[in-house]
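Example record

The entry below shows one chain as it appears in the dataset: sequence first, then structure tokens.
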Amino acid sequence: MKSHLAAALTGLSLALSAALIAHAQAPASAAPAAAPAVQPVVLRAAHLFDGRSGRVTSPGLVVVQGDRIIGVGASAPLPANARVIDLGEATLLPGFIDAHTHIASDHDDDWAQGFYENMLRFPVEQSFHAARNARLTLDAGFTTVREVGAPDFVDVALRNAINGGLVEGPRMLVAGHAIGSTGGHCDASPFPPDRVKPVGTLEGVCNGAEQCRVAVREQMKYGADLIKICASGGVLSEADPVDVPQLTPDELKAIIGEAHTWGRKVAAHSHGDLAAKQAVEAGVDSIEHGSFLTSSTLQLMKQKGTYLVPTRMTQVWVVAKADSYPPKIGAKARAAGEAHTKMFKEALRIGVPIALGTDAAVYPHGMNAQEFGDMVDLGMSPSTALLTSSQGSAKLLGVDGETGTLEVGKFADVVAVPGDVLQNIRATEKPVLVMKQGKVVRGGE
């Protein structure tokens, strides 16, 4: 028996040796062919806003190889075999960045109808809605977004699907569930508890510092790139006053400290002044909305480098639609909208760092660029408004080393809009070309 086994093993060894020798002697032509080189792309236009200088230069030229920019400006060398896309009387800009979206959720003009439809959908079904919203956002020129709260980790799934090439959408940084206290803006609506089970830390609802640490860790465990908190009440929630603090200083310190330890930034929803001040003192990275912020809190934000994400267009939207909301919500919308106008002008005067964010889903997805014009309507210059995306949002999200400006070595995230954008900021709402990481996703025919 042993001799037969030894003979078999010897035969197998000889066969393997012969196969290895044959492979080593195979001609070089048997090696797999190299992948063909990606054709360079040249984008031409009458104007260029690089996102750093704050100026428009003419003519505009961006040279792209693969997913990166390899040349910018009229003197950039042109590859001989490049595909040239001539956009005529247009402005080339960095792909827009929205620091406050809810792509994983839907907008509905009928607030109550939309609320209950969303409640009744399975997460898998909602993922298809989210993919549609992502494509609308990308087509609007937004190549990077921050998703600041979504149910059922739909935002994590959408980010992964986009990164895996399964669906088209902007690059996403996601928060998982927003974190807040029982009964607050980040909690579920006050359904009868015997019919709808109250949510807990996995869904972002926590009370006390230790529970709040758990909630942060759970969001990160399941894929959150950042942490979103509800420091004060909200407009589009029925049970809570809009300006009341909803997290204690100890809870804020626990959340922010834990997130920062893990290298995650923290965004704080806060209409109320005291809630925002406490969050800033605890080290939060940005205040979202900020309707009732006072001069002293805005001064503190400037001192600490805390960003304001004003979501101005949402204020405009909810005030215009206030009569269509339930009475409690309509009243909060009017109060917050009036205060927000004064706050924004004061923030401009003080020089608080501002990052563009829109609160997409409060309004229909794909309208995000209205934010530029709405900020200009309150006294911001067109150039500064554009810089709230290319400088403000890019730095707040921590992606300014990769995108946000048209510079050699960065991702080829490019938008083209009609005419001279500094002469007509509303042109940002009508992009004629969108390129994300070197791929043209809109226009360019």
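Notes for this example: The radius of gyration is 26 Å. The longest strand covers residues 60-65.
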